[in-house]
C-alpha cells in the first residue's frame, strides 16, 4: 500500500491499519488467520459478499506469487513465490520484508541523527563566528574610546 513511502503525504485511519493487518495475517502470519477472523478484524461488514472479500485477498496473494521483479534482490521475499496453501515454515520474525523495513527505519533514523549532528555543528560554527565578530567590535570600541580619551 506504500505506507512507508507515502507516510508523510497521507493519513491512515485505524480502519486502514486493521484491514491491512488482517490482510497480512491472512497471507503471511504463521499460523495463518482464518478467513472468518480476517473478515472480522478487517472490519468488513457482515453483509459484505464473501466473493468480493475473497477476490480482494486472493488478488493480493496472486499478485505476489506472479511477480518475480525482485528475483535478483538480496533481500527478496522468497516466500512470495510459494503457493497460497504452502505449508512451508516461514518464521515471521525473519521475514525478508520485515528485515528490509527495519533496516530502512534504522537507516532513516541514522540519517536523521547525522543531519541533526551536522545542523548542531553548523550552529556551533555560526556562534563561534558571531563571538569572533563581537570580540573584533569590542577591540574597535576600545580603540575608539582610547582615541576619544586622548583628545
Description:
Helices cover 62% and strands 0% of the residues. The chain is built from 4 helices and no strands. The protein has helices at residues 14-27, 35-41, 50-66, 96-150. The radius of gyration is 29 Å and the shape is rod-shaped. The chain starts with 13 loop residues before the first helix and ends with a helix.
What keywords describe this structure?
single chain, 151 residues, mainly alpha, 2 domains, 4 helices, 62% helix, 0% strand, rod-shaped
Question: Total strand count, please?
Answer: 0
Share of residues in strands: under 5%
Secondary-structure element pattern, one letter each: HHHH
Pick out the low-confidence regions.
Answer: 83-87, 89-94
Report the mean per-residue pLDDT as an integer.
Answer: 73
Distance between the termini: 80 Å
The helix count comes to: 4
- Based on CA atoms alone, the radius of gyration comes out at 29 Å
Amino acid at each position: 500500500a506504500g505506507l512507508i513511502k507515502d507516510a508523510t503525504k497521507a493519513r491512515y485511519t485505524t480502519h486502514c491499519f486493521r484491514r491491512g493487518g488482517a490482510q497480512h495475517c491472512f497471507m503471511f502470519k504463521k499460523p495463518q488467520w482464518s478467513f472468518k477472523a480476517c473478515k472480522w478484524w478487517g472490519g468488513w461488514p457482515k453483509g459484505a459478499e464473501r466473493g468480493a472479500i475473497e477476490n480482494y485477498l486472493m488478488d493480493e496473494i496472486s499478485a505476489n506469487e506472479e511477480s518475480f521483479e525482485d528475483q535478483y534482490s538480496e533481500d527478496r521475499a522468497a516466500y512470495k513465490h510459494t503457493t497460497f496453501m504452502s505449508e512451508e515454515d516461514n518464521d515471521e520474525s525473519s521475514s525478508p520484508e520485515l528485515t528490509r523495513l527495519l533496516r530502512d527505519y534504522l537507516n532513516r533514523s541514522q540519517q536523521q541523527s547525522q543531519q541533526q549532528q551536522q545542523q548542531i555543528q553548523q550552529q556551533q560554527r555560526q556562534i563561534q563566528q558571531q563571538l569572533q565578530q563581537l570580540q573584533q567590535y569590542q577591540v574597535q570600541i576600545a580603540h575608539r574610546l582610547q582615541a576619544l580619551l586622548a583628545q
